[in-house]
Amino acid sequence: MATSDSVYKQKMIFVIFLFLWGSVKCLPQGAPTKVCETMLPNHGGGIPPQTGTALFIVTTLRRQNDIIVTIKSPIEVPFQGFMLQARGTTGKLLGKFEPITPGAHTINCNGTADSLTHSNTDSKTAIDTHWFAPDNFEGTVIFKSTYEGMRNNASESRRRHPTPNWYSPIHQKQIPVTSPRFPPSIIFRKDEEVKDPFYDGCTEMKNCFGAPLGCIATQDCVAAVTVTVKGDRYIFDLKARNSARWVGVGLSTDTKMGNDSVIECVDEGNSISAYMSRTTSRPNLGVIRLNNPKEGIQLLRGDKLNDTIHCQVQRNAVTIVDGVKYDLVNNQYNLLVAAGTGVRDNSVGFHDLTAEPSSTPIYLAEVSEIVGASKLLYRLHGVFMVIAWIGAVSIGTILARYYRKTWVGRTLWGKDIWFSWHRNLMVITWALTVVAFILIFIELKAWSTESNPHAILGIFVTILCFVQPIGAYFRPHPGTAKRPIFNWLHWGGGNAAHILAIITIFFANSLTKAELPTWFDWIMVAYVVFHVAMHLILSIMQCVSDKAEQETNVNVFSMKEINGSRKMNSIVNQDAPYASSRKGLLAVYMTGVVGLVIVLVIVICISPIK
């Protein structure tokens, strides 16, 4: 009998032990469906709720078809377990979740995937998930969440499934999405704009800078960086869209790339990595990753959603980069933000998406509004080249080719009118080309690193621009044996320069620094079509005019003996036939070209255009 009682007691103790162990260990598979209503941890009691200021927040990013929901701690308190739901004002569960971050999965409470919970008990600092609203839903949705975690406890931390010893209560209050204390409410309305939490606190709590200029205010940057200082911790948030493979921020002592310390955020396929690199000095610009590229920085978070890459990197306040000391506390720096789609071995590719320097150096710990560096010289380069090669050259070549027998007998500055205007327009072209050529080298101080033929074509255009007036100055006199050779060379050189210049302007549209809209090319296409059409019309008219002039000359010679030489002289000093029509077409052509030039100049000056 005693033996039987002893066995019975042992079984009871074993059962009680299993019960107690199962009731206190953190559930690695996540919250069970029986807590769908309460959302409270089911660990058999004894776990106190967290009191005081909320340690966690929920942020949302509205997109076209879903909402990106992020749960995190603004002070980076880790948590092990969580539960997230979306409810309407009546308390009904709404929509469905689709986790983004590993370590989370959905459960079915009242519907399919209408709740989200943890998949393991690993420490977490943030969880991202998609949330899809029900079809045709319009109203208020409240994201509710609870968290559980473990305070520092050496004996518990060594366990495979450590027991949580606190949990956060559910917050019910509906407040705006920007609240740092409670879960947000979202009102669904058609065409509603929801702000990106990445930009929250810019110019108030953290420094923000992005490209293109002005994008921080509109929250639509192609690439951007924010800098938050917490004590001696400098936290850089980097973000880029448009299928960026990398985004980077450089610390520089000026507004030019070269000899800068760079933090790279790189999409490596299965993960996001952060590296330290430096830019080489001019004129041999490039980016070289450091021998120990992760020294001095720590990747806090990295993710990629659709076409957007994002990472958060903590950088030491003082770092040594190739013998140069970067002291973020005591020194001021310009920010250089850039992004690109290409990645090389141990290096990022060219910043083909965007690149922008800040205008002045700042102390990163002092929050202020950061503005971009001036792009005046870039703009002037483009404006001068367009005026020269779309405006002046186009009109000058038309005059030289079709208007030699117009305004006959009339002069301007001692020369035929067509020649005086042709020469003046070519001098304007030469002057504007030279100035534009000098301006761009003053701005860049180096050869362009873009894989774009714009620069090399521009060199050829400038050379031909110099050769043409030199050849014209030494031209043979009319009627000499070498005059036809000059005529062909001058005609060929001028047309080659003009055609190359137009092609070069087309290539400018794809330059990162130009920031031109894609439809800029269509304005150029309109110019080319108009220019070619007018050439065809004037060529046909010239043939008709020459034929009519020949017939007139035959009649003149047949009547020469009767009328004498006075009639012949009057014919020679007259315009070729259809002069009025040619003048009218010239007015149409000049109006069209000047109008297109004005449009192109305006687009260059106000770009980037959204």
TrEMBL record:
This is Ferric-chelate reductase 1 homolog. Residues 344-544 form the Cytochrome b561 domain. Keywords: Electron transport, Glycoprotein, Iron, Membrane, Signal, Transmembrane, Transmembrane helix, Transport. It is found in: Membrane. Its main location: membrane. The lineage of its organism: Eukaryota, Metazoa, Ecdysozoa, Arthropoda, Hexapoda. Residues 1-26 form the signal peptide. Belongs to the FRRS1 family.
